[in-house]
UniProtKB/TrEMBL annotation:
Keyword line: Disulfide bond, Glycoprotein, Glycosidase, Hydrolase, Secreted, Signal
Organism, as annotated: Podospora pseudopauciseta
Compartments it resides in: Secreted
Catalytic activity: Hydrolysis of terminal, non-reducing alpha-D-galactose residues in alpha-D-galactosides, including galactose oligosaccharides, galactomannans and galactolipids
Protein name (record): Alpha-galactosidase
Spans through the membrane: none
Highest rank taxon of the organism: Eukaryota
PROSITE patterns in the record: ALPHA_GALACTOSIDASE
EC number: 3.2.1.22
Signal peptide: 1-17
KW Nucleus (keyword) present: no
Function (record text): Hydrolyzes a variety of simple alpha-D-galactoside as well as more complex molecules such as oligosaccharides and polysaccharides.
Length: 447
């Protein structure tokens, strides 16, 4: 448990975290990325429209600042310039080059993100950066034009045999053949990601570095000295549970987060993948759970739904615009993720269940203690936040003021517990303070 003064020192207490001097990466990144909805169907127009919509829909003012280009932006055939070796943008998708997109994005006060891969080819089969790290870091930096920040998402496909890891750890199939005590920070995966880290560090600009290593090689154990965030699982898919090919529904991801939430802090964030809010046929309740939990986990908030139709999809826009949840995710004083305080669903703590992950979560912010109650069931259930079970509230008091983060309303003062009906697949999000509105336990943190 860290003291408030310790937390306020912030950067100083994070000796190994990769926090850039200007504060880039201290908090979870917020923005938009093309992959979840557009996959390879991208063009200059998509990103320029998104940038304008981020402003017009009020999302920029809420903190969504990155406009991130994902896979398939370069020329698949030509790959690299024969003379300079630089990556060549696809001239049909980006007729004026990436530079022009950066200019448009920056002119709106937003930041540009780009994508590459720590292998020979990206997952879509475009040129990767392995062996070209210095040149590509310099190229991305050059394309950024001015002093605005940038983001690099660095994927993990097409690793040549000479870079294969000695041992294998894949979180979805957790057979781990490494000897006990093996330091995964010495793995080839860690080395491949570190080469790009070093190249980025040598640029005269700050680049937010998002490792897309899918939880392989226990990236959570070395990610915080290498990047600002690291993907923890396979690709997300807009479904509640289960798996389709290599993509996963929300519940298996939350299950993994139930077990590994504690690797997150200022400057070092587990990345539970980009948001699918507004995509596929997720129900409103499922969309609410997705957003509330990603905020609670302090995962990056990277929207993946088309923005040109978002004004017409008001319930989705409202979810993505929930300021109280965003404030929790971006809290300036408390860096830790929320943690499960009870598993629920009649299960002992710290057990894995890909359909029914931990249901009772607690976190803290400058505003108070926050409780998130996830209903994994297919029917509405009554869920009870019993104060004596919640670590920072255990000591009791004269009663707590319970506030609904979804509606912005105070729900009243309760002495022993607060109970409400949570719809199927919905998540209640509560702020709990003393009856006078003061923080009930400012010294408590999940870590
Ligand atoms: C995957 C990655 C996705 C997306 C895709 C592009 O490896 O996890 O988020 O970037 O590659 O091909």
């Amino acid at each position: 448990m860290a003291s408030l003064a310790g937390r306020l020192l912030g950067l100083a207490s994070l000796a190994s975290a990769f926090v850039s001097r200007d504060g880039t990466g201290r908090l979870p990144a917020m923005g938009w990325n093309s992959w979840n909805e557009y996959e390879c169907n991208i063009s200059e127009g998509v990103f320029i429209t998104v940038a304008r919509q981020l402003v017009d829909l009020g999302l920029k003012d809420l903190g969504y600042e990155y406009v991130n280009i994902d896979d398939c932006w370069s020329d698949k055939e030509l790959r690299r310039d024969a003379t300079t070796g630089e990556l060549i943008p696809d001239a049909e998708k980006f007729p004026r080059g990436i530079v022009k997109v950066a200019e448009e994005v920056h002119s709106l006060g937003l930041k540009l993100g780009i994508y590459s891969d720590a292998g020979t080819d990206t997952c879509g089969g475009y040129a990767g950066s392995l062996g070209y790290e210095e040149l590509d870091a310099a190229t991305f930096s050059k394309w950024g034009i001015d002093s605005e920040g940038q983001d690099l998402k660095y994927d993990n496909c097409n690793v040549p045999p000479e870079w294969a890891d000695e041992y294998e750890y894949i979180p979805e199939e957790p057979a781990n053949n490494a000897p006990p005590g093996y330091d995964w920070g010495t793995s080839n995966t860690a080395k491949r990601y570190r080469v790009m880290h070093d190249a980025l560090q040598r640029q005269n600009r700050t680049i937010q570095y998002s490792l897309c290593a899918w939880g392989h090689a226990h990236v959570e154990r070395w990610g915080n000295s290498t990047g600002h965030s690291w993907r923890m699982w396979g690709d997300i898919f807009p479904a509640w549970k289960g798996k389709e090919k290599w993509s996963w529904g929300l519940m298996p991801i939350v299950n993994q987060a139930s077990l590994l939430w504690n690797y997150t802090d200022f400057g070092s964030h587990n990345d539970w993948d980009m948001l699918e809010v507004g995509n596929g046929d997720l129900t409103i309740e499922e969309n609410r759970s997705h957003f509330a939990l990603w905020c609670a986990l302090k995962s990056a908030l990277i929207v993946g739904t088309p923005l040109d139709t978002l004004a017409l999809r008001k319930p989705i826009l409202d979810i993505l615009s929930n300021k109280e949840l965003i404030d929790f995710n971006q809290d300036p004083v408390y860096g830790a993720s929320a943690m499960p305080y009870k598993w629920g669903n009649d299960r002992p703590a710290n057990t894995s269940d890909r359909d029914h992950p931990a249901a009772f979560w607690v976190g803290t912010s400058v505003k108070g203690i926050h409780v998130f109650l996830l209903n994994t069931r297919d029917t509405a259930v009554n869920m009870r936040a019993v104060f004596a079970e919640i670590p920072p509230l255990k000591s009791g008091g004269k009663g707590y003021l319970v506030h609904d983060m979804w509606t912005g309303e105070d729900l009243g003062i309760f002495r022993k517990y607060f109970e409400l009906e949570v719809k199927a697949h919905d998540t209640a999000a509560l702020t709990i303070t003393k009856a006078d509105g003061k923080h009930p336990n400012p010294r408590w943190s999940p870590k």
